[in-house]
Amino acid sequence: MQGKTSKFLRATSIVALVAVPMTTAASAQDTTARSADFEEIVVTSRKRSETLQDVPFSVNAKTEEQLRNSGATGLADLARNVAGLAITDLGPGQSQIAIRGVAAGQTARDLANVKEQVGVYLDESPISVALFTPDVDLFDLERVEVLRGPQGTLFGAGSLSGTVRYITKMPEMNSSEAVVEADVNQVDGGGFGWSLKTAVNLPIAEDKAALRAVAYHTSYPGFIDATQPNGRVDKDVNDGERSGFRVALTLQPTESLTITPRILFQKLDTDGFPRIDVWNILGNPYTTTEPAFDLGERGQFTQLEEGLTDDFFLADAKIEWEGDAVTFTSVTSYTDREVLVLRDASQLTGSVTYDLAGPVGYELGEGARISSPLADTSDLEIWTQEVRLTSNGDGPLSWVIGAFYTDWKRGYSQILNAPGWDDLTGLSNVGTVGSQKDQPYWSVIDMDFKQKAIFGEATYAITDALDFTAGLRWYDYDESRVLKFDGAFAVPTNAPGEASADGFAPRFILSYDATEDVTLNAQVAKGFRLGGINDPLNEPLCSADDLESYGGHPGFSDESVWNYEVGAKTNLGARGTFNVAGFYTDIKNLQMPVSAGNCSSRILLNVPKARSMGIEAEFNYLVTENLDISLGATVIDAELRSDVTDVNGNILAGAESGARLPTAPKLQMTAVMNYYWQFGTDYEGFLTASVQHIGSNYSLIAHQTPGFGSIALRDFGDPTIDTFNFDPKMPAYTLGNLRIGARRGHYEVSFYVNNIWDERAYLSLDLERGGAARVGFTTNQPRTFGVNFRSEF
Fold this sequence. Notes:
Blueprint lengths: L1 H24 L16 E2 L6 E2 L7 E5 H6 L5 H6 L4 E4 L7 E4 L18 E5 L2 E2 L14 E8 L13 E7 L8 E11 L4 E14 L3 E12 L4 E3 L5 E2 L5 E15 L2 E14 L4 E6 L18 E3 L5 E16 L3 E19 L1 H12 L2 H4 L9 E19 L5 E20 L4 H5 L15 E21 L4 E21 L6 E21 L4 E12 L2 E2 L10 H7 L4 E2 L2 E13 L4 E20 L6 E23 L2 E14 L26 E13 L3 E12 L15 E3 L10 E3 L7 E12 L2 E8 L7 E7 L5 E6 L4 E9 L1
Parallel strand pairs: 6-9, 13-18
Antiparallel strand pairs: 1-2, 3-8, 4-5, 6-7, 8-9, 10-11, 10-41, 11-12, 12-15, 13-14, 15-16, 16-19, 17-40, 19-20, 20-21, 21-22, 22-23, 23-24, 24-25, 25-26, 26-29, 27-28, 29-30, 30-31, 31-32, 32-33, 33-34, 34-37, 35-36, 37-38, 38-41, 39-40
């Protein structure tokens, strides 16, 4: 640890030395006096610009500066700062999003058939995928908008329970700008990280063309230690890198016509996963005839290197023509994305080997430890096109009408390689569909998904104080896929499948200005997501009970919600805002992920009825010119309202009326304080303190089943215990971040501590083969010290 600390201190000194000369050399300009009025944020959550307080439903918006000051660097950090937004964090690039408790549980990597419940957009281009939603860098953003409740009318792509929008900074015509940001950080007991980011805005032709270019690189510090079979401990195995660039060109050939093409590329590489193993069949403290291992506070057992590679390319173009009466907008986007997740499945193969081949694998010693990499590969290609007309003017009626189309192709494969497995077990593994020797599991799924929609929304001012909004989206979904499975673990399959649906998603809003500073809102809205086709069970691995319980589910139905809410938006004079909303969401055919016992299979089942209800509140106030505070809280009660049973009438996978909906905590709170002061003649100091509290939750509905958390152990290593017990509930946790710094003119330097009291949070439960092979938890980054330098000129 001493060497790592010295390395961090040296890097910190270099950044400080760079910052000081540049600061003292800057022209002596006074720090701009702070306004005594609260500054409102302008959003585009209804496809038109309006202040946050004027939007007649629940929206949260965070600027880039607010996110940076609170210590947020990615999607998971964002969620901890926004009431009602929850993230199942499986590591960089693998986050899953839930809003207002509408969630069915952690989506496994091999559930390629599930669709997202929350739509994610980069500006106006949809980028969401159920599991692999890109974790884009938060640098050079205008803001992030979180739209709560169904947004299917205007944002149809996966916006069942809400929408998250990253709004980037666009080229500015007649001003030059450059931003440079450097950061170095050290994880307490872990690795060293750093980042370098820059953005440049260049006018090309006066009032006609401008370019904005962004480039960034981040080196993530690791903090998980991996024990190897020979007892060696590899330190900080979950480090990684994220690099990318974004280039946008704005052309304005006439005053009314604006064309903005853009390209973005981001590459994410991680060398492991932030997983703590509390039980692993190949490495645990209970064995007597095999080496016993104590994996430590933040440790795991592996035989192979793990990691993720994610190459994300986006090209889009926005064309906007503004006339006297209407504005025409066209948005075209193309996404090409390749994701490879490489996992060490040696413990899975060892567990299955015992069940299929009996003690032979264990009698042969190292045969039980066949190093078995499991590769999950996704190749996505997505085209989208949206056109719309938006009314202009100040009359009592405002409206937007448009059409949307997407063609979404995905190739997904999951292949398990286990060199020597065929000879060890005597089970021939060369299949008829595609598997080769020593590939006990092989699957390839080709998917083609098309969606077309027509949408519209209009707001009419009935009186000066009362507005009524009505919106409607007609959608038509068609999905086709070819499922190919092979290998000793699977049933050879080569079969097509398809799913389709069409319907309407309406929204109705009443907004009433009760006083000059208080607006009351009421909303009813519908959300929808498509059903699909389940993968076949791995029957050779299933027990008779598993086959009886989980068989007979070839597909799952469409999911829909009706959301009812009332709220109030209050301006506290010119000093702040207080917004509150209460909601009730009725869920039909909730798509519930299920691990099918020992089958090492995952399918989706429908729960006929569920509901989520709660209240969310946000308070922002400028106490003085130098002190502002922000508070947010959500209380959610989300549960099943019907049962799911097997053929014998027994509750299946914990799906019993009254069970909590998973991944979303009942209580979530956040608090941020910013304090500013002047010193010297030209300097401004600043201090930001933030605290986020996340309540307890479950990763899956099944984890609430009585007795879940007790694993009957195989006899590999002659363990001293018969069962391993663990608590499947993710306990509540509270994180605190602190940042202090100074700025002068164009330059700023700050020091920060994230996770001040070094909270070790359990974020999700990670089971391999239902726990028979491994029980693990993903976890957060430990206490981290850092220094950040930023220059804007």
